[in-house]
Amino acid sequence: MISSPAARQFLQGAKDGLPFHIVIWPFAAIFGAIATQAGLNVVEVMGFSILVIAGSAQLAALQLMTENAPTVIVLATALAVNLRMGMYSASITPHLGKASLLTRAFAAYMLYDQPYALSTIKFEKEPDMNLSEKLGYFFGTAIPIGVAWYALTLIGALLGERIPSDIGVDFAVPITFLAVVAPMLKTLAHMASALTSVVLVLVLSFMPYGTGLLVAACVALVVGAQIEVWMEKRKDAA
């Protein structure tokens, strides 16, 4: 019987993260297959997944690499797709920021969409959780999904051509983002930023090498920040 509160929270986090595996498993396997079909060897594919651990950025970078895009565009696009990680870090620091340096470093590495979304919702619902319980829950959501991402990427890379790359798991990325982002659109600034990014990505789709995404991300951040400032001024005036 597990008596440690942190251990119980770890198991609860792993349980809460189970629905995401439905998407992660085929997504990771297809990425591994596509990457090997694009010319990367197994070591390069696994290095890609282990170092980046961000499916959307990996797919965006891989597509640009196959199109022979300039290296600076590949890096800039991957960074733009992952800009949200900086906001995730700032948001979750009040909860995990008092952990040891090594623990914070590992948490920073494992900070991606699914554990961030599940953890922030959990911490808001249960504000009395202590640091060890919060860390237990966070790692309970993050580690099993991360291990699944590595394992299925490896399987996809090893099977290579035997996994068809056109079996229609493209839906995995938008479905995952919708599941993660939708519950967090709580303010006018959030919704305006999301709407701005969606509209601009569509309008600027003609731009080469996906650079429209870079523009959309930057403009959406500015719009969200400006609305936050405007709302704060209105609050102070009231």
Task: Please give a handful of descriptors for the protein shown.
12 helices; flat; 238 residues; mainly alpha
Quickly give the structural class: mainly alpha
What spatial form do the alpha-carbon principal axes imply?
A: flat
Q: How far apart are the first and last residues' alpha carbons, in Å?
A: 54 Å
The counted number of beta strands is 0
Low-confidence stretches: none
**Quick check: average pLDDT?**
84
Q: What is the alpha-carbon Rg in Å? A: 19 Å
Helix content: over 70%
In DSSP terms, counting alpha (H) and pi (I) runs of 4 or more, how many helices? Answer: 12
Q: Beta-strand level of the residues, as a percent range?
A: under 5%
Tell me the major beta sheet: none
Order of helices and strands: HHHHHHHHHHHH
Structure notes:
This protein has helices at 5-16, 18-37, 42-52, 55-66, 71-81, 84-96, 101-109, 113-125, 131-159, 172-181, 188-203, 211-237. The protein starts with a helix and ends with a helix. With 238 residues, it is mainly alpha-helical. The chain contains twelve helices and no strands. The radius of gyration is 19 Å and the shape is flat. The longest helix has 29 residues, at 131-159.
In brief:
This protein is mainly alpha-helical and 238 residues long. It is 77% helix and 0% strand. Helix 2 runs antiparallel to helix 10 (172-181) and helix 4 (55-66) packs antiparallel against helix 5.
What does the secondary structure layout of this molecule look like, with pairings?
Blueprint (H helix, E strand, L loop, with lengths): L4 H12 L1 H20 L4 H11 L2 H12 L4 H11 L2 H13 L4 H9 L3 H13 L5 H29 L12 H10 L6 H16 L7 H27 L1
Helix pairs in contact: 1-9, 2-4, 2-9, 2-10, 3-9, 4-5, 5-12, 6-8, 8-9, 8-10, 11-12
